[in-house]
User: Which sequence fits this backbone?
């Protein structure tokens, strides 16, 4: 089993006030909700074992946008059935760092990245999770990189807006979760132009 | 007593070097100067002292500042490029082996985050 977001994590939670973002809002437990009130993901419900990628996960695979994206697109009258999103590729180097806490954070973070791309109408060609060790001081961190088809300045602004969403989510995390997110995980956006993966 | 050194001079030196660069060595050096200029700026603005794990502590301090998560991650991207420039004779990742591309990426990040770091 790989990193793909499982559809069976959804559950109705009744009335939810949407945040300023027209689609995404974040529940008080750090769960991600979209404007119809459907709970998309709660980090407390997920078995961390699901995050360990199998070998076949190492190569790029393309899968359709997840159920929530299609549902949202339908609501907005913007159905793009040809749109796809790459499965995250997990570098084996990151496996020793996948504690239960880190795995839960990563799973939500990857979904945030996917939702941000969808909401921004941005084509994503690759998503990668790997480890970086600074050779100067042996500090290590988990690097989540999303490759997008955008011009550099546009990609940097897209990255800034993603950072804002991550901060909103981080502000709702309890205990050590926020510290782990801020100290052990970074998000990168890499831009490439003129690439059409489909 | 002379005025403190302005770390942004490192950034300017990197940019001037890259403008006339004809070798990989010059572009690698430009990446390093650009990173160190912004790193020192961020370190001093956030009041980070000491040398133990000072790079990661500085970047985490930037990320923790409200509204600066992405800026911290962008500075961290420069840090990794600088590590590639200074440590990897053959860059481990194939996408890091074109130094014109690496410098272009670094310059875009520098231009984007330099004003934000100066407002820290």
Assistant:
């Amino acid at each position: 089993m790989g990193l793909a977001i499982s559809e069976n994590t959804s559950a109705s939670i009744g009335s939810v006030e949407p945040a300023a973002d027209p689609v995404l809002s974040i529940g008080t437990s750090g769960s991600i909700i979209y404007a119809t009130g459907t709970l998309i993901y709660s980090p407390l419900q997920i078995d961390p074992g699901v995050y360990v990628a199998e070998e076949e996960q190492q190569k790029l695979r393309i899968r359709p946008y997840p159920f929530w994206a299609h549902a949202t697109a339908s609501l907005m009258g913007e159905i793009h059935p040809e749109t796809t999103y790459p499965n995250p590729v997990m570098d084996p180097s990151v496996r020793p760092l996948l504690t239960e806490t880190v795995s839960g954070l990563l799973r939500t973070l990857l979904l945030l990245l996917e939702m941000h791309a969808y909401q921004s109408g941005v084509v994503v060609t690759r998503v990668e999770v790997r480890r970086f060790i600074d050779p100067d001081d042996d500090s290590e961190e988990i690097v989540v990189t999303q490759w997008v088809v955008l011009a550099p300045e546009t990609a940097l602004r897209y990255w800034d807006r993603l950072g804002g969403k991550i901060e909103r989510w981080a502000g709702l995390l309890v205990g050590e979760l926020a510290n782990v997110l801020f100290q052990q995980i970074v998000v990168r956006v890499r831009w490439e132009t003129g690439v059409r993966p489909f | 007593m002379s005025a403190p050194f302005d770390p942004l001079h490192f950034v300017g030196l990197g940019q001037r070097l890259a403008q006339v660069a004809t070798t990989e060595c010059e572009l690698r050096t430009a990446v390093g100067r650009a990173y160190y200029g912004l790193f020192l700026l961020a370190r001093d603005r956030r009041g980070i002292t000491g040398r133990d794990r000072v790079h990661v502590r500085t970047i985490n301090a930037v990320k923790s500042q409200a509204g600066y998560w992405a800026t911290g991650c962008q500075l961290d991207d420069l840090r990794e490029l600088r590590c590639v420039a200074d440590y990897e004779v053959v860059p481990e990742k194939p996408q890091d082996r074109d130094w014109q591309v690496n410098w272009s990426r670094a310059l875009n990040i520098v231009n984007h985050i330099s004003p934000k770091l100066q407002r820290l």
About this structure: The first strand of chain A starts at residue 11 and ends at 12. Confidence is low (pLDDT under 50) at residues 1-65, 70-82 of chain A. The helical segments of chain A are 67-75, 100-120, 152-170, 177-184. Residues 131 and 137 of chain A are 15 Å apart (CA to CA).
